[in-house]
From TrEMBL:
InterPro entries registered for this protein in UniProt: Metallo-B-lactamas (IPR001279), RibonucZ/Hydroxyglut_hydro (IPR036866)
Gene3D superfamilies documented for this protein: Ribonuclease Z/Hydroxyacylglutathione hydrolase-like (3.60.15.10)
Keyword Secreted: no
Superkingdom of origin: Bacteria
Species this protein is from: Croceicoccus marinus
Name of the protein in question: MBL fold metallo-hydrolase
GO molecular function: hydrolase activity
Domain Metallo-beta-lactamase intervals: 34-226
Keywords: Hydrolase
Length: 255
């Protein structure tokens, strides 16, 4: 497997509107962060997209991606789903809708807010066939597992994908570590993990929590994502343990 981090920033991106870089060095290209999403590519070239950020069109262009084989959503917050209309271009030339998956609550909310994507309208084809995760066990030749994570007052879904080559867990937008999370992520090869800032936050993991999760589940490698303007790339690289890397837009991770 190969994972491409399409976006590694928080909900406002870096820099924020107004050219606000915070503590991030504008001269370091890896500090320029779009909203979070990733693509997983299997050995036979199939691609799984996780989340449709508001920056999705440019992310796909920047990484030369013109097709996907499935799409997953962690939850329905704007920075994770408001680029959903850009899936229209990925529907062209397909024999049917793109398979899509999310937790039950996210399925309900997405269908209500973006009904035309999942049911078609005015002669336009359905873009995504959206299903809950209940019966999903395999996708694109990979085994799939998931769990719900506390994200302040709501939930976000973490995903695990396993192949013969190894495993990757994507766990963004969580505010505490639960026994279900540890059980699902245990022994993973690569953990891509929420890390908003250094100080605690009511709805996101901070640096100490992200590192704690990586240690607790025994991840061989951890990659930090969902970083805000206080998290300068080079400064943060000097703070983290040897098996932890700071994610950035366009980063490719071999599993």
């Amino acid at each position: 497997m190969k994972v491409t981090i399409l976006g590694s920033g928080t909900s406002t991106g870096v820099p924020r509107i107004g050219n606000d870089w915070g503590e991030c060095d504008p001269g370091e290209p890896r500090n320029r962060r779009s909203r979070v999403s990733i693509v997983i590519r299997t050995e036979d070239g199939q691609r799984i997209l996780i989340d449709t950020s508001p920056d999705l069109r440019q992310q796909l262009q920047d990484n030369g991606i013109d097709k996907i084989d499935a799409v997953f959503w962690t939850h329905d917050h704007a920075d994770h789903c408001h680029g959903i209309d850009d899936l229209r271009a990925l529907r062209y030339g397909r024999g049917g809708p793109i398979p899509g998956f999310a937790g039950d609550v996210t399925v309900q909310r997405l269908r209500r807010r973006f009904d035309y994507v999942f049911a078609g309208q005015f002669g336009y084809s359905t873009i995504v066939n959206l299903e809950p995760l209940d019966r999903l066990r395999m996708i694109c030749g990979l085994s799939v597992d998931w769990c719900e994570m506390p994200h302040g007052p709501v939930k976000s879904t973490a995903f695990r994908f396993d192949s013969n080559a190894g495993s990757v867990v994507y766990a963004t937008d969580f505010s505490e570590i639960t026994t279900d999370m540890v059980a699902m992520m245990d022994g993973c090869d690569t953990l891509i993990v929420d890390c908003l800032r250094r100080d605690p936050h009511p709805t996101h993991a901070h640096l100490a929590m992200a590192l704690e999760l990586a240690r607790t589940v025994g991840a061989r490698r951890a990659v930090l994502t969902h970083l805000d303007k206080s998290m300068d790339y080079r400064t943060l690289c000097d703070e983290v343990p040897p098996n932890v890397e700071v994610g950035y837009d366009g980063m490719e991770i071999e599993i």
